[in-house]
Amino acid sequence: MPRYWLMKSEPDVYSIEDLRKDKRTYWDGVRNYQARNSLRDGLKKGDLVLYYHSNAEPSGVAGVARVVREGYPDPSALDKKDDHYDPKHTAERPIWYVVDVEHVETFKKLVPLEALKAEPRLKTMLVIKRGMRLSVQPVEGAHFDIVRRMGQGT
DNA sequence: GCCAACGTTGGC
DNA sequence: GCCAACGTTGGC
C-alpha cells in the first residue's frame, strides 16, 4: 500500500524532464530537519511522489515519481566542493539523507499552484498553505488522486 | 528582483 | 532558554 508525498525542485536546477532523461536520481541537498526526517524514516520503496516545480513560471505539480531506494546518507554533504557540503555531517555520524526516485510520468499539462488553490477538495493540502516551505511533505491519497487526474486531464 | 515567512544561529 | 539577527525559500 503506497503512501504519497510531494517533493519540491526548482526546474532551473533539476526539472521533471531532467528526471525523465536520467530515469532515476537521488534527491540530494535537503537541509531542513523536518524534511530530513521524512527522507530518513518516512519515504518507503514504492511510495509515489508529486513532483512540484517551485520558483517557476508558473509553479505547480509537473508529474509523478516513485521511491525506489529508501533513505541513506546524502553523499553531497561529504563533498567539500559541493554547495551542499556540511562539515558537521560525517560518514560515521550522518545528518542528511537522500532517497532514490524514478520517473513515472510527466503531466501533459503542469497543474499550477493556482489550480490547486482553486480546487475545493484540495483545500487542506499543505503545499497551498501560505509560507509553507517544507520541501518534502506528506500528501493524502485522495489528494494525490485528484492532482494526478488534473495533470492527466481526466 | 522584492520581500514576507520561516528556520537556524549565536550572544547573553 | 530567550530572542534578535541572519540566511533561505519561494510566490509574485
Strand-helix topology:
Elements: E1 4-9, H1 16-22, E2 24-26, H2 33-42, E3 48-53, E4 60-73, E5 97-112, H3 113-118, E6 136-139, H4 141-152
Parallel strand pairs: 1-3
Antiparallel strand pairs: 1-6, 2-5, 3-4, 4-5
The protein binds a DNA duplex (12 and 12 nucleotides) through loops.
Q: Termini, distance in Å?
A: 23 Å
Low-pLDDT segments, ≥5 res: none
Task: State the CATH superfamily name.
Answer: ph1033 like domains
CATH architecture name: Roll
CATH class: Alpha Beta
Helix-strand makeup class = alpha+beta
Q: What is the CA-based Rg, rounded?
A: 15 Å
Order of SSEs? EHEHEEEHEH
State the major sheet. Answer: 6 strands, mixed
Shape designation: globular
Per DSSP, the total helix count is: 4
Number of domains: 1
Q: For this entry, what is the oligomeric state of its chains?
A: single chain
Indicate the proportion of strand residues.
25-35%
Averaged pLDDT, please?
A: 93
Strands of the largest sheet, in order across it? 2-5-4-3-1-6
Instruction: Give the CATH topology.
Output: ph1033 like fold
Strand runs, count: 6
Helical percentage: 10-25%
Description of the structure:
The chain contains 4 helices and 6 strands, in the order E-H-E-H-E-E-E-H-E-H. The chain is an alpha+beta fold and 154 residues long. It has a single domain, classed as ph1033 like domains (ph1033 like fold), CATH 3.10.590.10. The longest helix is centred in the C-terminal third of the chain and has 12 residues. It is globular and about 45 Å long. The protein binds a DNA duplex (12 and 12 nucleotides) through loops.
